[in-house]
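Handout, page 2. Input:
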Amino acid sequence: MVFYIPHGLDRPAPLSSTPRNLAFTGLVLLLLSLSIAAGAFFPIAILDPAWQLRLGAVLVNSAPLPLVGLAILHLALYLDKQDELLVRRRRIAAALALPVALD
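Output:
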């Protein structure tokens, strides 16, 4: 009796795919937080106190998402320091995080 084992299922995934999967997860969290913040801005009513309170609450409540996303990106780069794609993604995310942190 011969069993067919699909290619790749007989051994664990190589370590090189794990950091990229982690980086993808971190980017998804960053994009999710960006979409949540963008959704809170519309419709814009700068002088309306209810809108200001809602916007502040959304920004405060969604704050852990980009922090966790950046932490996961840094973890992915720590696992594979030679991957240029991960280095570029981390630099872009860090550059975009600076204006958000100063806000």
